[in-house]
Every structure is written in structure tokens, then in C-alpha cells.
Amino acid sequence: MAEHERVEFKNPVARWFDSRLPILSLAKGHVIDFPTPRNLNYFWTFGGILAVMLVVQIVTGVVLVMHFTPHVDFAFDSIEAIRRDVNYGNIIQKMHTVGASMFFLAVYIHIFRGLYYGSYKPPREVLWMIGVLILLVMMATAFLGYVLPWGQMSFWAAKVITNLFSAIPFFGDSIVTWLWGGYSVDNPTLNRFFSLHYLLPFVLVGLVFLHIWALHVPGNNNPVGVEVQSGQDTVPFHPYYTLKDTYAIVVFLLLFAAFMFFAPDYLGHPINYAKADPLVTPTHIVPEWYFLPYYAILRSIPDKLLGVIAMFGSILVLFALPWLDTSKVRSANYRPVYRQFFWLLVIDSILLGIVGSNPPEGAWLTIGRIATAYYFLHFLVIVPLVGFLEVPRPVPASISAAVLPPRSELRAAE
Amino acid sequence: MSRSFPLLAAALLGLATLTAPALAADEKLPAKDVGFSFEGPFGTFDRAQVQRGYQVYKEVCSACHAMELMRYRNLGEPGGPEFPPDQVKAIAAESKVTDGPDASGNMFERPALPSDPFVKPFPNDNAARSANGGALPPDLSLITKMRAGWSGSLKTLYTTQLIKGMGGPEYVYSVLTGYQDPPPELAKEAPEGKHYNPYFENGHWIGMPPPLTEGSVTYADGTPATVEQMAKDVSAFLAWAGEPKMEERKRIGFQVMIFLAVFAVLLYFVKRRIWGRHEP
To answer: Does B147 contact chain A (CB < 8 Å)?
Structure first.
């Protein structure tokens, strides 16, 4: 975004404005004309889907705050008042909670797309690392938001997660007291969680801006995984990808609406419809589905501190991925061995999710430990080794060579 | 568990010692799968059934169970029992609420108005406990939302729940109709004043005596008041109370789905037309 051409607009008002603040030129360069690889498949639409979901969450969130009371005595009832008495409140509230689930569904697909097509490799390391940062902030935001309705699972989730920090040597207990704002999860905790839950989405907006900036320097990766070489490899973003993205966004919204309107409680826990009670521990304390794999990793390590380190490590390892992957070939389409390990990682992650939803006993504990070990094995051993040992299939010379029919065929067709 | 998560384990252990009998058996039976008119994407409440259900709540349950989130006006609002306005006023006026202070600073009693919350049977939890042998009768406003009929089993998790929900109303129905003689091996350890009910959430022993007997209420519409009928009616009423705007949600849901589906089809063809321009 640093250097962009000034467009000479025909409209005098546009020209006057743009010569003073070249935001129209910027939009034209980065939204309308931006040269985009012509071969992006539908997995590339999840960036746009995520941007829409962030806006949905912020807009519904701002409306919910107008009716929410961040106090332990009123939070639960104020959410119920939204569901019962606020005009369309039942729908807005569901849009926000189910929206969080959909946000994570989309972000996980987006991340695995990056893993498959090697979107983290040079020159996109910073783009990828900002993405990992976005994931971390998203997770923090989702956790803080989950606590706000002050249901049973909200309260106990807050307790369990904040207690993780007590594993820090020497200062653990002081840090937990500091996080709580007292000696237990109570009103000060709810208040600060509310404050931060309102703050972090705007941090996300800033990070998303950087993410897009870092994307627009090298341009998009693509399913073939070779860089753009000529104008033949690209199409302008508008109308080609504006329409493809919008179509994908609307299809995604159909899925979102199906859950939100017809199975709104499917992705949540019934017990969170009970008001928080510090004296009654739920039989099973389980996070929302999108945190289950991390929860499984946490619980499969028989030491609390190491468990916490492994849980955060499972995400932090992604920061190092651009340097762990030794292969020069980006797209797994041309990496027969890595491709199989990619799918094993997908299965492993889903397995970790299933383990996380079950009590850590008996076979589940064993499966959880194997799955956790395999997760780290994938990133720390398999990915570096496969890069060295694998013989990739020949990579096409260019995007157009890979996706357009050869010229001889074109001539024959004419 | 205890090694990887000492705090949680300690908390659970503490709870286990506090409520040992309640946790003794947590393998409750899955709820009886009774059919309700409000299931599925097209389901709506059966007005007559929800009205009968309110009658059961009013005449039986409300002796011990509060519904703090409900107001009498809700009974007349669209999407629920839809009592006519006069009847809502009459229903409210049957209960007395304490209001005030008046001009001279005294509290006074008056008949409830439609804008008042359902009058509670006990002034506070302690009074409720002491009148019920130490057990607290839970508030029923969200009981069909907070109790799952069949969660926890992998077999039902991915199919039944998606179509029928968590089975909250079925849970209520099953508990109300599920009182049994305890199996002989459990009978001798029966806690004082508890009743055997294999559908109950917290172990098999429930503090509530069987609340419904044949003819507990007399339905104005002549429906025979069997235990099953009353249980089903009151479960439907409580399902409505758990989400009074369910019908609105489904109605708007269909409008949204149809709009999005048509929009998606149009976008698909526009997108194909645009991309067709660029075919080599």
C-alpha cells in the first residue's frame, strides 16, 4: 500500500477530493484493479467470509451492549431480557453466539488452507504471523465473551482458564489474583472481562488491516503455488473476485442462518442456561467446540505447567512454521508425501477435539496423549524432514501454464 | 485427571463429598422421546396444549417452583398460550403482590397486574429449602433449556440433537412420568425423603415427590387429565417459557433462508457470466 498510482478521476469532485486525500486511488488500486491470481479456488473465499463475520460480531455486539448489564447480579437476567423483551433481541443474541462458532469454523478452514497451499512460505511469513496473532486475539475475545452471560459454564470456564496462570512458578497465585481483581471470580472479574471483550475486537480490526496490507505486498498465493509472472496469470479483483467472494459469503451465511435459526443451542452447552453458582461445580466443565483440541492438549500432559505450555505451544509453533518447513514447493498439490501428512494433521486435530469433549479417563486419556504427541511431531519433526526427503512433482512454469489450455489447442479450436 | 488438573479435580472432589448421594450414579437414562408440536424447523406451539400446561404449572408446580423470568403479560403475547387480554388480567389478579411504599411510607398488597412477574411461592431460597426438606426447587423459567434429555451420548449427539434439540422438554416429561420403585439393590440405600427416578439429572434420587396423579387438574376443554397428558402439556408450556420468541425465530429464519438462497442462486449465475467473459 506504500506506493500506489494516483488515478485521474473524470468526476471533478472525486478529482478534487482524491488530490487532497488519495483514498479513492487507494481503493481503486487495492479493491478494484488489484491483480489477483486467476486460479483461486473457493478455499480462498474464507478471507472475505472472515471479514464479514468480524463485522457481524461487532455490529451485533454493539447492539447487545445497549441492553447488557455487566454485573454478577444482573448479567444473566439482562441476557434473558434481551431474549425475551428486546425487539428481535432473541435473534441478535443468537447471531452473536452462533456467529462466534461460525467465525471459528471459517478461521480454521482459512488456516488449514494456508497449511495445504504453503501460504506461510516466503515472502508471506509476516502475513502468516499476523494471522496467527489474529487467531490468538480471536480466542481471547471468544473466551472473554463466553464469560459475560454469567451462566454456569461461563463462570466455571472463567475459573478454570484463569487458574491456568497459577501454574506460572513463583508469581502464579499473585497473577491469578490480579486477573480476578480479588480472591475469587467475582464482579470485578466480570467487569474487566466485559471491558476487554469490547476492546479486543477493535484490536482485531487493526490486525486484520495489517494482515491485508501484508497480503497486498506480495499478492495472493494460489493453488499452483508459483508466483504471478505476467498479466495472463491474473484478473482484476473486481468484478471477478468481488462476485466470487460475495457468492461464497452468501452460501456461508446460509449455513450460519441454518444453525442460528433452527439449531441455535446445538453448538452450546445447556448448563449455561443456568445462572452462575460458585457453590455448584458442573459435572463436566467443557469449553465450546472450537477450544476442544487445545483443552485436550492441556489435559493430556500430566503436569499443569507443562500442560499450559503445550496448550499455548500448539499455537505458538505456528509462528515458527515458515522456518520449520524446509520445502521450496508451496502447494501440497505437488508434494505427494506432505499432502498425506497434511490430512493426517486434519484428522489429528478433529480427534483432539473429540478427546477434549470427553472426560480425560481411560482410553480417552491415552488417545489424547498420542494425538497431542502427534500434533507436535507433525510440526517439529515431520514437516522439516519431509521437506528434505520428499521428491516433489514437477511444478508448472506459471499459473497460466497450469490452468489455461496450451496455445496449440486454442489455435485448433479456432 | 487428578494429576493433570489438580484444581479442577480438587473442586470436583469437594463437590463429590458435599453431594455424595447425588453424584453416586450419573448414568441417567436418556429422556423418553415423546413427540411435540414445536419440534423441527416448522414446529409451532399448540395453543390449547400450552394453555393446559399453564394450568398444570399454576395449580401444581407453582406451589414450590418459581418462574422468575416470566411476567403475566407473556401469557397473552403472540407465539405462546395467547390467552385473551381479559383473561391475562384475570389470571394476574388472582395473585397478590406487595407494592409500595405508598404516600405514607407503608408497603401494601394489591392484585398483580399483567406487567408483574409471576408471584414466587417462597420469598427466598432458604425459605424454599426449609419447606422442601433441604432441597431447593429450581426455577422453571429455563428448565427446558438448561437440562438436556440426551446429551453426552455420542450416538445421539450428532443426529438427534441437530433435529430435535437437546431434549429439554422431553427431559421434563420423563422426570414427571419416570417415578418408579427403586431396584432392590438400591432400595436399601434410599436417602431419607428422596424418591427414585432414573431420569433425574443429579443421580437417581430426587427430592420432589411424584407431583402428578390422575386428575390433579380438571381441564376446561375436557381433555382427560392423565399423568402423561399433564406431563406433556406442562413440558410444552415450559418449552415455550424457555424461549417465548421461538415461533418468531423460526418464521424470520425461513424468510432469511429463502432470501439468501435466491440471492445465492442469482449471484452464482452472475458470477458465471462474469467469469465466462474471461475464458480464453
So the answer is: yes
- Within a domain: A4: no
The alpha carbon of residue B4 is apart from the nearest alpha carbon of chain A, in Å, by 4
- B264: cell is 445465492
Q: Residue B158's pLDDT band (boundaries 50, 70, 90)?
A: low
B161 touching chain A per CB within 8 A = yes
Q: Which helix (H) or strand (E) holds A200?
A: helix A187-216
AA letter at A304: K
Residue A250 forms contact with B (CB below 8 Å) = yes
Q: Is B268 on the interface with A (CB under 8 A)?
A: yes
Interface of B with A in 178-237 (CB under 8 A): none
Kindly state the helix (H) or strand (E) to which residue B98 belongs, with its residue range: strand B96-99
What is the model's pTM?
A: 0.92
- Domain-terminating residue out of A227, A256, A277: A277
B10 within some domain: no
What are the pLDDT digits (tens) for B87-122? 999 999 999 999 999 999 999 999 999 999 999 999
B12-63 pLDDT, tens digit each: 343 333 333 333 344 678 888 898 999 888 899 999 999 999 999 999 999 9
| Cβ–Cβ contact A305 with B under 8 A | no
Residues of B in contact with A360 (CB under 8 A): 1, 4-5
Contact call for A254 and B270, based on CB within 8 A: no
Question: How many structural domains compose chain B?
Answer: 1
- Is the ipTM, as predicted for this complex, more than 0.90? yes
Run of H or E residues at A102:
helix A89-117
Q: What are the start-end ranges of the H helices in chain B?
A: 6-18, 20-23, 47-59, 85-93, 125-131, 143-146, 154-157, 160-164, 168-177, 184-187, 227-242, 246-277
SS3 breakdown of chain B: % helix, strand, coil, rounded to 5?
Answer: 45, 5, 50
Q: How far is CA A167 from CA A175, A308, A315, in A?
A: 10, 8, 19
pLDDT per position as a tens digit, B178-225: 999 998 888 888 888 899 999 998 888 999 999 999 999 999 999 999
pLDDT digits (tens, 9 = 90+) for A237-283: 999 999 999 999 999 999 999 999 999 998 889 999 999 999 999 98
The reply to whether A408 falls in a domain is: no
Alpha helices in B19-124 (DSSP H): 20-23, 47-59, 85-93
Q: Do A307 and B162 touch (CB under 8 A)?
A: no
Residues A300 and A273 in one domain: no
Partner-chain residue, chosen from B12, B248, B263, that has the shortest CB–CB distance to A250: B263
- Amino acid letter, residue A369: R
- Residue numbers of A between 360 and 389 with CB closer than 8 Å to B: 360-361
CB-based contact, A404 to chain B, within 8 Å: yes
Query: Looking at this protein, which amino acid is placed at residue B70?
Result: M
Q: What angle do CA A325, A328, A333 make, to 5 degrees?
A: 90
Cβ of A244 within 8 Å of Cβ of B146? The answer is no
> Which cell is B273 given?
457470466
In a domain, residue B1? The reply is: no
Peptide bond connecting A188 to the previous residue in cis, omega within 30 degrees of 0: no
Specify the long-range contacts of residues B34-40, CB closer than 8 Å, at least 24 apart.
B34/B170, B34/B173, B34/B232, B34/B235, B36/B169, B36/B170, B36/B232, B36/B235, B36/B236, B36/B239, B37/B236, B38/B169, B38/B236, B38/B239, B38/B240, B38/B246, B39/B163, B39/B164, B39/B165, B40/B163, B40/B164
Task: Determine whether the interchain pair B275/A273 forms a contact, defined as Cβ–Cβ distance below 8 Å.
Answer: no
Residue with cell 427403586: B182
B136 at interface of A, judged by CB pairs closer than 8 A: no
Domain membership of residue B2 (yes or no) is no
Shared-domain flag, residues A192 and A301: no
A300 interface with B at CB cutoff 8 Å: yes
